[in-house]
Amino acid sequence: MLKQMCGAETLAWLHIQDFEIDAAFELGLLKGKVLRTTAERLERWLLGSFERVSSISETMRKRAICKGVKPDRTELVTNWIDLNEIKPLPENERQNNPYRNRLGITSDKLILLYSGSINKKQGMEILADAIIALREREELVWIIAGEGPGKAEIVEATKGLPQVRHLGLQPSECMNDWLNMADVHLLPQRAGATDLVLPSKVIGMLASGRPLVATSPAGSELGKLAELVGRRTDPEDAIKFAEAVIDLTGNKEERMRLGRRGRQYAEEHYDMDKVLTNLELKCELAVRLKRGATGGRHIAL
User: Fold this and answer.
1) Domain carrying residue 68
2) Is residue 298 assigned to a domain?
């Protein structure tokens, strides 16, 4: 509608963060064959009305092609992060982290941090099961921070466990201290969300120089990343998830090695200046091609 209002010379570009329709049906949030068929047909028509369609991972870009978008009209535009704002802190600063001090967590404790939305696609039940399985490990402190429709369930599931802290969302200006508080980041995700979403919070985890434990099938985009910078376990397998946590918390040198690798990966793939410069070049090219097709008239993007 906006393109029609602005005129035929406008170039319409759609950027997809999540394939929400697919995720809603795969996770059981929406049900019904007729409803899904109708929604997918509408989605296919909408995607076809844009001259450029981009997404945040190569797998998601290919999914757009499977939905009928021509390959030469698709682009990869990853999420980005300011690496000067989120960066690893020296070990001595980590032990004096203001969040550790505020929460009264002593230096002999290891912090396992989940931070983000709490809803069905996260698969928070696996996190609750892992916490319960490791409840005798007094050196572990689990911090679960965020909001969402699934929060009440995980609060109830971990009720009475003194090593679990439930917090709300944190201010963006404190994000570097917040992410650096963790010894290991946690990223549970249900199998139904595989390659339909790529959690944006993973970039902050990598930039902070701390390893992660993620649930995702082998070969998935998140799964391959987790194997590179931490540990990957299959979704819905709480025992393996707990074992991966113990593996990392028991080996400081391995945590530091994987954290450095994650930071390097963030610098190579998610640096804000690199990503946005690349996006600007893609926009300029798209406009030049559009201008050539319309006889050199001014193009709006």
Assistant:
1) 2-79+271-293
2) no
Over residues 11-36, the mean pLDDT reads 91
* Alpha carbon distance 94, 107 (integer Å): 9
Residue 224 lies in a domain: yes
Please give the model's pTM, rounded to 2 decimal places.
0.89
CA–CA gap between residue 244 and residue 247 (Å, rounded) = 5
Lowest mean pLDDT among 25-34, 242-251, 275-284: 25-34
Residue 301 lies in a domain: no
Question: Could you tell me if 52 and 162 lie in one domain?
Answer: no
Same domain as 280, residue 150: no
| Most distant pair of Cα atoms in the chain: their distance | 72
Confidence at residue 75, expressed as pLDDT on a 0 to 100 scale: 95
Block residue for tokens 């917040």:
178
Residue 97 lies in a domain: yes
CA angle 189, 224, 75 (to 5 degrees): 90
User: By three-state DSSP, how is residue 113 classified?
Assistant: strand
List Cα–Cα distances, 25 to 30, 87, 193, 196, 198, in angstroms. Answer: 5, 37, 10, 11, 17
Of residues 271, 249, 266, 145, the one with CA closest to residue 209: 266
How many domains does the chain fold into? 2
Rounded Cα distance, 260 and 262, in Å: 5
Residues 110 and 257 in one domain: yes
